[in-house]
């Protein structure tokens, strides 16, 4: 007979998986395998285009 795991154990497993994911990301970053998130690139692009348009309209 298989019993469902208690919620505490399930939560602990989720926390441990999350910690391992963070450890892996830190290790990748230390090796130089980091990437810039897409949302950061999007914000930078919008800021540059917005700045250029503002310069065109205000000049």
How would you describe this protein?
- 76% of the residues lie in helices and 0% in strands.
- It has helices spanning 7-30, 38-58.
- The chain contains two helices and no strands.
- The protein has 59 residues and is an all-alpha fold.
- It has one domain (7-58).
- The chain starts with 6 loop residues before the first helix and ends with a helix.
- The chain crosses the membrane at residues 39-58.
Q: Specify the number of helices.
A: 2
Question: Share of helix among residues?
Answer: over 70%
- What Rg, in angstroms, do the CA atoms define? 22 Å
Shape: elongated
Note the main sheet: none
Global mean pLDDT: 87
Domains counted in the coordinates: how many? 1
Short overview:
The chain crosses the membrane at residues 39-58. By secondary structure, the chain is an all-alpha fold.
Q: Layout of SSEs?
A:
Blueprint: H1 7-30, H2 38-58
Q: Any key phrases for this structure?
A:
single chain; 59 residues; 2 helices
């Amino acid at each position: 007979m298989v019993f469902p795991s208690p919620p505490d154990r399930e939560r602990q497993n989720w926390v441990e998986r999350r910690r391992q994911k963070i450890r892996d990301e830190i290790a990748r970053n230390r090796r130089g395998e980091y990437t810039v998130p897409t949302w950061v690139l999007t914000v930078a692009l919008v800021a540059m285009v917005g700045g250029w348009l503002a310069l065109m309209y205000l000049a």
